[in-house]
Each structure stands twice: as structure tokens, then as C-alpha cells.
Design brief:
alpha/beta, 14 helices, 10-stranded mixed sheet, 314 residues
Amino acid sequence: MDIRGELRDQPLRVGISTRSLFDLEAEHEVFVQDGVAAYVELQREREDVLVEKGSGFKVVEKLLGMNEDDNQPYVEVILLSKNSPDLSLRAFNSIKEYGLNIKHGSFTSGRTLAPFIQSWGIDLFLSNDTVDVQAVVTAGTAAARLGSPPEVEQSKDLDDEVRLAFDGDAVVFSPESDMIFKEKGLHAFFEHEKMNAKKPMSVGPFGGGFLKKLSKLREIHLDEHGVSKVRIGIVTARNAPAHERVVHTLRAWGTPADEAHFVGTNSKAPILQAMDAHIFFDDQEKHVRGAAPVVPSGHVPGPHSPDEPVIPAN
């Protein structure tokens, strides 16, 4: 079976909550302040009102655009919601209006979505719910908590690329190198990385099934010049000499990146804005907060304090 057949047989599956796909913050505020009954009444009143796009909308739209045949897709998107089935009508009405090929979903009336991730065969879960995201990551599936849509509109919205940017350690790669720094300090970290430069790192939460399928999608869309419509970028606080292990690891995995930015102590936000990424994933909340005004950003729960410095740079 060729790579197209492989991905059609086992598509890249993205599970996304309604609050990540759509901007439902006003409705959520009613739920928090006035309760379930008022929320249900509001949603029914707005059943035929188009919902505005949320943080995860653009990357979902772009990934679905990589399908060559909607009946044999490379990418499938599953709508996952804690709303009741009754309130699914507004969500699917908006999906139809936007022209998204999303046909499947689960609506749980307030119950956690985490148990349904494996049932659907999800490779990436995007949600605004911290508890659900943590449970999914702990179970071994790529997941991130999204916030509000960025303040800055993307400048290349009309092109046919999809651009995904990832932090390295504790996102694509395991946090094992973090531990060297935390336990033994900066000098030991750099010595360890130099000694192990050609030894592939272990996979992190995004380095397993999700990245492998994304890399297959990238390969399918390579043109005759070796340029793909699926662009994968690494934006990491590593700098030389610790950068070398990143390159050798991705090479060994067979999951090449189109861009790698070794920013050290510099801000990631300007790089992400220049890349015009459709989404960015990082395990440190300070980087997510810094990037969120210019790019949809997802926090990946990690093994350390959200703002604790990891993977040092000099």
C-alpha cells in the first residue's frame, strides 16, 4: 500500500471541542454566570445564528483542505462537545455554513470527553478544558488547551498551505533533557547534548502518532521542488550546540521539519508571526501567552511548573 492508501486507511484524526472550533466565549459566560438553563435557552435562540470562528478554526479548515477526496480523506475532524445533543444543531449548522467537511461528533451533556478520545482514534485533541486536555496527554495522545483567537489577523490567509509550529522538548521530544538541566545545571546539560548529539531523543506527546501522520500528509503534498503545502516548524529555546540533536532526531524518525528556529532567550512570538503559523504548541505557559496575540496557541501540559524555565539557552 502506498502512502496515500496508508493515510486513507488510517486518517489523521483531529478531535476539537466546540469552544475551540468556534468563538463561544459570550455563551460560555452566560453558562458560568446564569447557569445551564439560561445557556440552553440562549443557544436555542441562536440556533440559526452563525457562530464566529475560534482559535482552532483556521488550522482545522487548512488541514481539511489537504484532502484530495472528501470520501477518502487523509484528515478527519471529529467535533467533541460537553454540550447536550440538542445543542449540536447550532454547531453543525455553522459547520455547514462554513463549508467544513465535518460529519461526526460526540455530545456528552457535561461529562468529560477524555474517554472518547481512544474510541474515535484521535491523534490530536484541541480543547479549552484544562482537565480534559491533561487527561488526554496523560493517556498518551497529543493534546493542547487553546485560548482566545489572536488579536492579529494572519497575513497570508488566502494561500493553500497549512503551517504548524511546535516547541521541541516536552512537546515533540520527551522532557528527558529538561531533567539533566534541572538536576545538574546548565554546563551538564550542554555537555550531555553534545555527547548525545547523534542519539535520537525519545518521543514526546506530539512526537508519536500525530507527527508521523502529519509527516505522511506533508510527503503526499510535496511538489517537484521538494516543497510541501504542509509546513512543519520547530521553534525552540535550544541554541547551539544543543540544536544538533534536534536535527539528528527528526532525521532518525523520518519526520523532517521545513523550518527550525533556535531562538535561545529571544521571544518566540516574532518568529511565529514571520512564519505566519496557523497554530503553535508549547509546554510553557509564558511562551503560549507571549505567542497568543499573534498566532493561535496551545498549551501542552508538561511535567514541570508551567512557567519554570526549561531547556536553557546562553
